Amino acid sequence: MLRVQGLKFLDWEEIELEMAAGEIVAIQGQSGSGKSLLLRAVADLIPREGEAFLEGVACSEFSPTDWRRSVCFLSAEALWWVDRVGDHFDKTVPEERLQRLGLASDCLDWEVSRLSMGERQRLGLLRMLDREPRVLLLDEPTSNLDSETSVAVEALLLEYLEENQAAAIWVTHDDSQARRLGSKVYRMAGKKLEVVT
Ligand SMILES: Nc1ncnc2c1ncn2[C@@H]1O[C@H](COP(=O)(O)OP(=O)(O)OP(=O)(O)O)[C@@H](O)[C@H]1O
């Protein structure tokens, strides 16, 4: 589904990655090792060499907007550009999704400024799913969450990947999360991507 070929940014070594529909690839590595840069490079958000292919079609064949809608990067700190939470969503978020993630049923009417870090993270994730991406580039998507809410986020994401035959690259500092979710686990170290399992 997603193939990354000879991807190179700054002075990191070339990166090759391939993932199938429904698959999660987990990426670990010390702080500053280049995990976020890799996700941004795949999303075509930073200057890079090499190519990424979605279902065989090169990134360069897409408009930048179409690529980023299909291969969607979720930053650890999602950006919010208007005051009201609900104005960031194209569609109505099913009440059941809010409930599953422990979010208040009226949170779409809230001001962004009142959101806690964990609420921002969960709503950023729902906003991403609202756009129905084919590939999810997740930068520590549960870093601000308690363990129970993290489990709920994991379950929702697994369900989304299965139902939509989408794929994800999941950056995490949590070893057990990487092993639990990743069909392959990689580590960024020494400016290169190494296979762990
Ligand atoms: N435009 C740039 N030019 C040079 N160096 C940069 C640039 N952008 C980021 N870096 C550096 O690249 C390194 C990797 O950054 P990155 O954000 O990918 O780390 P990370 O592995 O995601 O870390 P963390 O786990 O702390 O989030 C950092 O040292 C960062 O300062």
From TrEMBL:
Entry keywords, A to Z: ATP-binding, Nucleotide-binding
Entry annotated with the keyword Membrane: no
Keyword Signal attached: no
PROSITE patterns reported for this sequence: ABC_TRANSPORTER_2
Organism ancestry: Bacteria, Pseudomonadati, Verrucomicrobiota, Opitutia, Puniceicoccales
Matching InterPro entries: AAA+_ATPase (IPR003593), ABC_transporter-like_ATP-bd (IPR003439), P-loop_NTPase (IPR027417)
Transmembrane segments: none
GO MF assignments: ATP binding; ATP hydrolysis activity
Residues annotated as domain ABC transporter: 2-197
Gene3D superfamilies in alphabetical order: P-loop containing nucleotide triphosphate hydrolases
Coiled-coil portions: none
Protein name: ATP-binding cassette domain-containing protein
